[in-house]
Amino acid sequence: MITGATGLLGRELVDHLIDRGDEVVALTHDGNADLPSRVISQALDLSRGFSTSDLPSGGFDAIVHLAQHASYGSFPRDAAQLQQ
Question: Is there a domain that residue 8 lies in?
Fold first, then answer.
């Protein structure tokens, strides 16, 4: 399970895991993320209170938390922007 799957690092990780043949579950703000069709996407706003019952069912081999808080601001969408 990955939070921040549509971000700079998260999207790279998603693509790598899909290419490797792994099943990927992504938690996104609205569930309508532009992710590969093999990704299971579920809407969950991490900035609001939630419980484990709000998480996708099933076991996970790993949970990777890459989401940033919405108030942090805009993070570059491209690695080249980090050097500017």
Answer: yes
The answer to whether residue 36 sits within a structural domain is yes
Closest to 4 in 3D by CA, of 52, 60, 46: 46
Q: Model confidence over 15-62: pLDDT tens digits?
A: 999 999 999 999 887 766 789 999 988 888 777 777 777 778 778 899
Other C-beta atoms within 10 Å of 39: how many? 18
Give the range of the structural domain holding residue 40, as residue numbers without chain letter: 2-70
pLDDT band at 63 (very low <50, low <70, confident <90, very high): confident
d(CA 84, CA 80): 7
The answer to whether position 43 is within a domain reads yes
Residue 24 gets which letter from DSSP? Answer: -
- pLDDT of amino acid 38: 93
Inside any domain, residue 84: no
Closest alpha carbon to 5 in 48, 42, 52: 42
